[in-house]
User: What shape does this take?
Amino acid sequence: MVTGNTEPRLPAVVRYLFPAFAGLPLGPLLTLSLRSLAGRQPRLFDRLGEHRTACYFIDPIDLAFAFTVVPDAERSIVRVVGKSEAATSSVQIRGPILTLLSLLDGTLDGDALFFSRIISISGRTAAVLALRNTIEDAELRPADLLGLRGALARLVDTGILGALDVARQMADRNSRSKAPEA
Amino acid sequence: MTSGRMELVCPAGTPATLRAAVQAGADAVYCGFRDETNARNFPGLNFSGEELAEGVRFAHDHGSKVLVAINTFARVNDVDLWKKAADTAAECGANAIIAADIAVLDHVAKNHKQVRLHLSVQAAAATPEAIGFYATSFGIRRVVLPRVLSIQEIAALNRAIEVETEAFVFGGLCVMIEGRCYLSSYATGKSPNLNGVCSPPEMVSYDDEPNSTAARLSGFTIDRYEPGEPVGYPTLCKGKFKAGGKTSYLFEDPVSLNAGGMIAGLKAAGVTALKIEGRQRGKGYVTEVVRAFRKAVDAVEQGGDAIEIDRILAGQSEGSRQTAGAYSKKWR
Amino acid sequence: MSAIALTLGPVFFHWSPDRLLDFYRRIADEAPIDRVHVGEVICGKRMPFSDSAWPEIIERLERAGKEVVLSTLAAPATVRERRSIADLCTDERLVEINDVTALPSRSGKPFVTGPFLNVYNEASARFLIQRGATTICPPVELSLAAVGAMAGACPEAEFEIFVFGRLPLALSGRCYHARIHGLHKDSCQFTCERDPDGLAVDTLDDQQFLTINGVQTLSNQVQAFCPAPADLTSRGVRRIRLSPHTCDMVEVAKTYRALADGREDPKAARFILSCLDLPGTLVDGYAHGKPGWQAAPSI
Assistant: This one.
């Protein structure tokens, strides 16, 4: 897996939200925000079907920790875990944190990222696809997932989405450079 | 057959994508229900009845049409599920139903005369006799052409039939004749005709090996990649195989269809509507492709030349190799 | 009249007129088969080669008491191919329809629907029966249970199941024999003639998988579904189809005749088939509602 050192640097706001240690508050915070999202948009989780109870191991390769997510609507659980917990999950998704976040709001195309190997996926492919299609339809902004409101929400969205633009330009460059003649 | 403006028909795998396609300039969007009645039955994709009704309202408010694909073949003893899907589509105000199975076509023709019937590409009707049969029996108004015809053949066909034709111009390319391919069920037990899926994701595995990654479907190795090399989805007909002492992409290279350069030719051949494949694609992708094709079609309608069309569509390669497929005779 | 009839399907491969004549002579004289399909189904470009052989083959088969069915092209494209279908459809013999193209010219007269025609449910079967279908051989991916369910719902027609031979899995506008030899379909040099059972396609890890035959793709494995006769008759399936290969088809026919008559049990029948010079290993997954390449462990 080639990742190189070309990733954009994490913007301050992201570093603030994801301190580089297995911070206790983050798991419960994300669990709460996912459950409250389920309260606001119940149809979202219908889209996952049987994969609601799958355990997704999400590994931002440029952070020191990873997440496991069981997106079962109001029974959702997000845990901050060590990198070694991948084995117990049904699906493993790895990639730079900004790229993973960009999948949330549909800025970047999941297929393109996967096929160009910017993110890597293993485990139950059907569950990955269900998650990807669900997120695709949800039109989430980063702040929605963090359960933030008001000024802080706007700040987070601006910070993350701004950084995502950088990521997108990179991904574009990456895929274009690999395009041979038609 | 046609003298009016060509219609741009765009994919919508989710309500968000439907709205994106409409806003990007689709004349019509096509979508399906979240079950095995449609040929893109992938996890997390497609519409509930309620979502379709909302989608139709949104599209109609913006001057676009909604075509509902109920284009798999009804399962024996379960035909009612397919009939009910057609009934729901009609109730939601869909402009047309796209169907392939005689059972579904017959049901719509008898019970929903106000809804246009389009013959799905899954019916693989490629001759005046076959299309004539569907027109006479069920009153189909349009046929989605199998991706095996050249432009010259399409022109000849249009002179010989009474119904409109719709041609794929962009996206994934089936190498086999659609609706008559059982490769997927042979390997996995699930197929487009029976289950609405080809090479289903739950049978896919990417296996890391010492110096490569193997993409397998149901245990059959479909392709193998060097570290860092872009990988592909292991669709059976796009795999690398050994035959006759050679290793090659035997059926088709990993390419996608781009007939953008043939829009003017398709118009001259009498094609009514141009279709973009990709109900499994995200709204970012759909927005970009639809926007570009909207511009290209408008430019063709205004008599734009080939260089201008090429320039408009230049950005639509998304890093993969492309082909004009069967529209160019050499493809065969 | 036996409860279960045997059909010999059309030859999918590009056999020379001599090979065809030899093959059908033996079938006429020695094979316990009730009905024999003749004619080119896969590629219209091959028709000029075999056209001259058919009259003699038909005469020979009919003289031996076989019912002859004229099979028609599965993917007609050119004017000549379409005309050949229309011509065949005027024949007084039974005709096999493999594409909807043939329906307008055959409606109202009896016909067989072949495995290339998409008949997946009782409603579409009934529609075709009303237009003249007397025998329906559904697509190979359907299970015996599904075919039986259709047969139960439509007792007025005879249902046939594909039990022997490489499975016809796909058709294309593109010729793979031409492609692999660096040629195009329009100037293909008929390289498919070199592979009378098709050309094997293996995976990168040398798993046997598929076979190409011009524009057609078949399984590499050989369908060898050997049901007990009651499994068929209890579901209303009264006809089984054998698909021709270069192996000893008379022996294959005798084995299935014995199986259908209850003189040979499924396990023994399957053993006899496995001893023949078949182009691939034996499978029967589709019949059991499983992936086509799988084989029932019980047999």
Remarks:
- The CA atoms of residues 122 and 179 of chain B lie 4 Å apart.
